[in-house]
Structure to design on (241 residues):
């Protein structure tokens, strides 16, 4: 799937990096899928990837509205009730979250090279703590973390709010968006990064329709495929960590 970046030499050098989390650094998207399949099965409906693509990366209530409306169960289940029911199941699953392949290597590389990086995730504080509780070492290396319930994030992705807020909080103040590289897996996140005038590497789930790849500057099958030199960054010391 790796689709080489085009016109790398024409870009401003990357000085800062922003990471999404769910489905990009942590393998948590499968939990949402599992729970949503269980809920829809009660209404004799199936959960498919075209619906998931519309939900990914959004704030919880926004995704919930898409879920009940698009699946046609809105008359039987409100978005708010869906979230309450989903929450109980997710609470048990989130603490088992695993890091995605290549996530630890990339974060430790950026840290070692002194390249500032942060996290910008639609996840709210309570879920963030559950999801990351086994991975404190990796997430503690972030310069800062912007969550979905941050007061500065008025609108969820594809609005650029969260990435603009993240760029402002690096040491020294706001960073030129053209020098920021965002890592995302979700179509709404890719669009949010482009709306913020940042470059974006997409690492999508292979089940996501390839029509969603078009807006990304680079598409990779895995973080393991990332080549820092494509973006004017120093090379990895070791090809595989």
């Amino acid at each position: 799937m790796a689709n080489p970046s085009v016109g790398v030499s024409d870009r401003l050098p990357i000085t800062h990096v922003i990471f999404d989390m769910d489905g990009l650094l942590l393998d948590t998207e499968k939990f949402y899928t599992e729970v949503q399949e269980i809920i829809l099965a009660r209404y004799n409906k199936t959960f498919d990837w075209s619906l998931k693509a519309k939900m990914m990366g959004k704030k919880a209530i926004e995704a919930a509205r898409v879920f009940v409306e698009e699946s046609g169960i809105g008359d039987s289940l409100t978005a708010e009730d869906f979230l309450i029911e989903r929450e109980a199941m997710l609470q048990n699953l989130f603490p088992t979250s695993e890091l995605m392949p290549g996530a630890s290597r990339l974060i430790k590389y950026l840290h070692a090279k002194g390249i500032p990086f942060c996290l910008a995730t639609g996840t709210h504080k309570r879920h963030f703590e559950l999801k990351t509780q086994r991975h404190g070492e990796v997430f503690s290396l972030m310069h800062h973390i912007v969550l979905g319930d941050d007061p500065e994030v008025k609108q969820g992705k594809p609005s650029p709010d969260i990435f603009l807020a993240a760029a402002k909080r690096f040491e020294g103040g706001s960073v030129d968006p053209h020098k920021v590289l965002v890592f995302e897996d979700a179509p709404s996140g890719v669009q949010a990064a482009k709306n913020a005038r940042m470059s974006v590497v997409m690492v999508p789930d292979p089940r996501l329709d390839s029509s969603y790849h078009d807006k990304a500057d680079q598409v990779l099958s895995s973080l393991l495929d990332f080549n820092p030199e494509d973006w004017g960054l120093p090379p990895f010391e070791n090809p595989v960590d």
Observations:
- The two ends are 22 Å apart (CA to CA).
- Residues 79-93 form the longest helix (15 residues).
- The chain has a mean pLDDT of 93.
